[in-house]
Design a protein that fits this description.
about 40% helix; elongated; alpha/beta; 12 helices; 10-stranded mixed beta sheet; about 300 residues
C-alpha cells in the first residue's frame, strides 16, 4: 500500500528514480539497485554522469579542455559510460524506461539539482571504515544537501549482491526529522513486504563518559521511556500500513553502533538527515554521516520537506 502525496514532487507519477554513475563497481551496484526499484514501482530510471569540466580544467589546463578534440573525447567517454550503465539497468528489466544524461556540471551539483524532483537519488559507495573511494566528497555532499530521499548503496562485503531479505530498519529519536524517516520507513517496508524495526537509543553519543555515575538512569526506566517515545512516534502508522509488522528496540546508548549491527541483516536502513535538536546548518547528523560510510546495507537519508 502506497500513500499518495499529491503536493510532494517526489511522489508524483512523473518523479524518476535517479542514479549517479562514474564507471566504478560501486556505481554498477547502485545502477542495479535503482533499476530494481524503478521497475518495481513503475517509474522511469534516469542515469546521470557529471563530466565536471572545471575539475578537468585544473588537471589539463582550461585551454586544453576547451579545445574541441579534448572536450569531445571527454564527452565521448561520458556517453560510453552511461550507455554501459543503461545496458546494465535493462538487464534487470528489459522493459524499463531508461533515460541517460551527461552534463558538464560537477557530479554533486548535478545530483543535488535532480533530487529536487526525483522520487529518490541513488549513489554508490565503496570501501569500509569510512573510506570514501567512490566519488570522493560527492557522496557526503549529496547526502547532506540533497532534497527528498537520498540512498547510498553500500558495496562492502556483500559480494556485490543486492539483499532482498531482512527488515527495513529505521532510527527514531523523537525529533521532527525522525518523523519523516519513520514515514519513509513504513512505506519502504510495505513496498518490500517485510518487517519494520524501529530503533531508539536513549542517550547522546557521549553517554559512555557518564556511565556508572550515581545519577545514571536505571535501565528499566530507560526501556519504559524509550518504548513510550517509540509508541508516540509510530502512532497512527499502523492504521495506514496494517500489513507492516513493527518491532521496537530500545538501547541505553550507542545509536550508531546499534544501527550498524542491524545493517548486517537489514535490506535497508532509514535515517533522518539530522538528529534530535540538530543545528539548522548541520545538514547531516553525526549518526547519518557515519552510517552512509560504514553500513553493510543501503542507507536511505530522508530530508524533510
Amino acid at each position: 500500500m502506497t500513500i499518495q502525496h499529491h503536493t510532494d514532487p517526489h511522489r508524483l507519477a512523473s518523479a524518476e528514480v535517479v542514479v549517479g554513475v562514474d564507471g566504478s563497481e560501486a556505481a554498477d551496484l547502485a545502477v542495479r539497485w535503482a533499476a530494481e526499484t524503478a521497475s518495481q514501482r513503475g517509474r522511469r530510471l534516469r542515469i546521470v554522469y557529471g563530466l565536471d569540466l572545471a575539475a578537468a580544467g585544473s588537471v589539463y589546463g582550461m585551454y586544453d579542455v576547451v579545445m574541441p578534440p579534448v572536450i569531445n573525447a571527454i564527452r565521448r567517454a561520458g556517453a560510453e559510460l552511461v550507455d554501459r550503465a543503461r545496458q546494465l539497468a535493462q538487464k534487470v528489466d528489459p522493459t524499463l524506461i531508461v533515460e541517460t544524461e551527461v552534463s558538464e556540471d560537477n557530479p554533486a551539483h548535478l545530483l543535488i539539482e535532480r533530487s529536487e524532483t526525483a522520487h529518490l537519488v541513488a549513489i554508490g559507495a565503496a570501501g569500509a571504515g569510512g573510506t570514501l573511494s567512490h566519488l570522493g566528497s560527492t557522496l557526503l555532499a549529496v547526502a547532506s544537501h540533497g532534497r527528498g530521499t537520498i540512498v547510498v548503496i553500500r558495496d562492502s562485503d556483500t559480494g556485490r549482491q543486492i539483499r532482498h531479505s531482512g527488515p527495513v530498519v529505521v532510527g527514531a529519536d523523537g525529533g521532527p526529522v525522525s518523523t519523516a524517516a519513520v514515514a519513509a520507513a513504513f512505506e519502504e517496508a510495505s513496498e518490500r513486504n517485510t518487517q519494520l524495526v524501529a530503533v531508539h537509543a536513549w542517550s547522546d553519543p557521549y553517554y559512555d563518559r557518564f556511565a556508572g555515575l550515581p545519577y545514571t538512569i536505571p535501565d528499566r526506566d530507560v526501556e519504559t521511556a524509550g518504548q513510550t517515545l517509540l509508541a508516540e512516534q509510530l502512532a497512527g502508522w499502523h492504521e495506514k500500513y496494517p500489513d507492516v509488522q513493527v518491532i521496537r528496540k530500545v538501547y541505553l546508548s550507542g545509536a550508531r553502533q546499534a544501527l550498524l549491527e542491524w545493517s548486517q541483516s537489514a535490506q535497508l536502513l532509514v535515517l533522518g538527515s539530522r538528529g534530535r535538536g540538530g543545528f539548522g546548518g548541520l545538514l547531516l547528523g553525526s549518526t547519518s554521516n557515519a552510517l552512509v560510510q560504514t553500513a553493510y546495507c543501503p542507507v536511505m537519508v530522508v530530508h524533510p520537506q
